[in-house]
């Protein structure tokens, strides 16, 4: 045991009346929601990078946190793993997620980095034997090191492409060894800064080749996990190829991968793309590619991805409503891709950030389930489109052409009047479940 979280108790459910800040007020893992345990609905995961690798910096200032595991070398990485699993146990977290660079030091060569990762993965495997926490997904950090400044799979340098492919294989091997449920590809630098030096066609083909190799390796290894792409529109690249769900789906269709890959959608990225979180979730559900989510929020007065813990029940409710409508998570879950603020220095802040977020998500899930089970919103939606179910209108949509439809309009004297969309009524309805 380390001393970092000393005197912090394991977090348990005490109910809405509890005044204990180190207790869940709304997240009861065993509570049944729509016939399913709350823990199995939400499938919470702790993000290794924000919780244990983030040093408290921002674009204008460096490290503010003082953590005993900060520094180079495997001894520090082993201590970080000890602290991580102590925190998982305190939260009774079902899952965690990691990049390779989060958990091991960078080696002087690829071979050394690979050995470092394998050693930490062995430590994880040993710790998981006595912990309830499993791996939701693994991924490779192909954006921090300067070698990736022009991308990884899309890089104009074939050696960087090769290094990236080798790194992905090592991270997939780690994920498979730890029985991870998913593997995520996040193209933090897969984009361009200027078209003056960019070949869009070549870079798209390279990205498709990399993704195809990932899919092929999954099948070669007989792994039944899910491959996920995480859309993000900008930051740091001026334009990134995985801009949003629609863009990712277009890419998958272009290269025949739409049945092999799903998406991991982040709230903050949806906002940066000019969408709402629920829009991206609804579209992914409609397209059949909703896999998993990163739950966080942005500061709406800032123009970048601030990765704060969620604190709005209404926003979370609308998100989980779309998740439930899509059938809920199978291999995916709710990863807290969120970090405490750079002034939140204490170990207690790290625990309580997760406790509050888990409670917010529980409240949002229950409200979403109540709204879905009640059926009033879906009934109102169905009523708006009900005339399309009439035989003549269904026939028009199935077999109509411009000439026959014009004849119908002339013959029947069709002259439609606008109908109310009833938005304010529906907003009032939604708020009644909070």
Automatic annotation (TrEMBL):
One of its GO terms (biological process) is D-xylose metabolic process. Mg(2+) 1 binds at residues 230, 266, 294, 337. Its cofactor is Mg(2+). It is an enzyme of class 5 (isomerase). It comes from the Bacteria. The active site is at 99, 102. SUPFAM superfamilies: Xylose isomerase-like. Homotetramer. GO terms for cellular component: cytoplasm. Keywords: Carbohydrate metabolism, Cytoplasm, Isomerase, Magnesium, Metal-binding, Xylose metabolism. The gene is xylA. HAMAP family: Xylose_isom_A. Belongs to the xylose isomerase family. Its EC number is 5.3.1.5. Binds 2 magnesium ions per subunit. Its main location: cytoplasm. Mg(2+) 2 binds at residues 266, 269, 305, 307. It catalyses: alpha-D-xylose = alpha-D-xylulofuranose. InterPro entries: Xyl_isomerase-like_sf, Xylose_isom_bac, Xylose_isomerase. This is Xylose isomerase. It is found in: Cytoplasm. GO terms for molecular function: magnesium ion binding; xylose isomerase activity.
């Amino acid at each position: 045991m380390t001393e970092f979280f000393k005197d912090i108790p394991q977090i348990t459910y005490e109910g809405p009346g509890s005044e204990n800040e180190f207790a869940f007020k709304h997240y009861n893992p065993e509570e049944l929601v729509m016939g399913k345990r709350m823990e199995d609905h939400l499938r919470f995961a702790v993000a290794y990078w924000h919780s244990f690798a983030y040093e408290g910096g921002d674009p204008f200032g460096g490290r503010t946190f003082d953590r005993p595991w900060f520094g180079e070398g495997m001894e520090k990485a082993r201590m970080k793993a000890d602290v991580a699993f102590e925190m998982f146990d305190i939260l009774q977290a079902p899952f965690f997620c990691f990049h390779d660079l989060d958990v091991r030091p960078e080696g002087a060569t690829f071979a050394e980095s690979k050995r470092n990762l394998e050693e930490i993965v062995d430590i994880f495997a040993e710790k998981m034997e006595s912990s309830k926490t499993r791996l939701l997904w693994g991924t490779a950090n192909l954006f921090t090191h300067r070698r990736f400044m022009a991308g990884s799979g899309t890089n104009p340098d074939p050696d960087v492409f090769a290094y990236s492919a080798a790194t992905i294989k090592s991270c997939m091997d780690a994920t498979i060894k730890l029985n991870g449920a998913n593997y995520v590809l996040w193209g933090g630098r897969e984009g361009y800064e200027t078209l003056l030096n960019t070949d869009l066609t070549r870079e798209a083909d390279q990205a498709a080749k990399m993704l195809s190799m990932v899919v092929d390796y999954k099948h070669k290894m007989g792994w039944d996990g899910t491959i996920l792409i995480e859309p993000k529109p900008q930051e740091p690249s001026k334009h990134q190829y995985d801009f949003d769900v629609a863009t990712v789906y277009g890419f998958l269709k272009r290269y025949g991968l739409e049945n092999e890959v799903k998406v991991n959608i982040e709230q903050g990225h949806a906002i940066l793309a000019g969408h709402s979180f629920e829009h991206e979730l609804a579209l992914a559900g409609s397209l059949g590619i909703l896999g998993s989510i990163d739950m966080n929020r942005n500061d709406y007065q800032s123009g970048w991805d601030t990765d704060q813990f969620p604190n709005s029940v209404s926003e979370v409710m609308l998100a989980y409503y779309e998740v439930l409508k899509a059938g809920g998570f199978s291999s995916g879950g709710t990863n807290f891709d969120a970090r405490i603020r750079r002034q939140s220095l204490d170990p207690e802040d790290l625990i309580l950030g997760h406790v509050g977020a888990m409670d917010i998500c529980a409240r949002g899930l229950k409200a979403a389930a109540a709204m879905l089970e009640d059926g009033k919103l879906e009934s109102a939606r169905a009523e708006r489109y009900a005339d399309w179910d009439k035989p003549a209108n269904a026939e028009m949509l199935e077999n109509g052409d411009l000439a026959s439809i014009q004849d119908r309009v002339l013959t029947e004297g069709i002259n439609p009047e606008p109908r109310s969309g009833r938005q304010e009524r529906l907003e009032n309805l939604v708020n009644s479940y909070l």
